[in-house]
Amino acid sequence: MEKIAFIINSFGGGGAEKVTQQLLEYILSTNSAEIHLVLLNNDDIEYELPSQVIVHRLGGKSIRYVEYFLLLWKALKLANLLSANKIDHSISMLFRANVCNVMSKLFGNKNQIVISERSFSNFNSGNNLLINKLITFFYSKADRIIAISHGIKESLVSDFHLNASKIIVIHNPVKLNRYSVLPVQKENVEYISVGRLISLKNHELLIKAFSACVDINPKAKLIILGDGPLKEKLQGLVCSLSLQNHVTLTGFVENPGEYLKQSDIFVFSSLVEGFGNAITEAMSYGLPVISTNCPSGPSEILSGGDYGVLVKNDNVEELSRSMIKLMESLELRQHYSLMSQKRVLDFEISKIAEKYIKTIR
């Protein structure tokens, strides 16, 4: 029986964790494989796992910067764990897990090593000089590299001089939903956005753009699903714009679908995005999508604007105009709803998971 280890920093409520959960479920339902999940930290597991998954923790809480100095020790523990369990393939997601996976070679790990780069946030920053050097050195030692968008692959090749032939683009998967209906005419149009409350998600832009929508339609609503360090600041912005009766910050929600299927328009305001899981999940419910044209995932998902509305990045006026335009036009909402339902088929879990399986075999 083939033995596969998935390695990730922790299993909290993030996009990489959700993708890993979906891959584990699919592989176990269609293949006779033994699946191990290796967590670098001892943080709580927030997503439900199949009972067959064997979970290992390398130890320690997630503490910023301290974790980087512990990587060598964790790489040794990882190498011993992979060897003891006779793992055939190890697949890692997120930067620290990727480095730890490759570094395990130093301690005799012989299995096939596949790493997955999912974010632009490590790239091209003067504050991350050490991280960038680690990417260049360690990523080149992996057997295969999965990039979740063509933009990330291009950056890995041009900025870090990695071998393009080692890099395969595999977009993130999404579960298809049977619940998808065409929008209907209504006064209380409800916008929704999903994402961690951090600066890169640029929810401040979204809230300011939504304020203009309320000026046009006082019954409009905005729901933002997600938690993060900026929650208090964003709540303050909501109050300063007198939007307390219009904007809801829910905190982390394990099942966004219950909210998505009650909403009318999905809005994504990120400054940069490796892929955009929240977009494809919204599309799976047939929601029309408006997104900033940030590097680089949203543009790839929406195919340059064919399957949703792309607006100039970090531009409140352009975003508010598009939000108002879709709010006022049922015909446009129905058009982009159909486009969402068509496009999301390309990201169905079976298609994406089979690409992962093909990559490691």
TrEMBL record:
Which intervals hold domain Glycosyl transferase family?
185-337
Gene Ontology MF: a single term = glycosyltransferase activity
> Origin, by domain of life?
Bacteria
A GO BP term here is:
carbohydrate derivative metabolic process
Question: Which part of the chain is the Glycosyltransferase subfamily 4-like N-terminal domain?
Answer: 14-178
The name under which this protein is listed is Glycosyl transferase
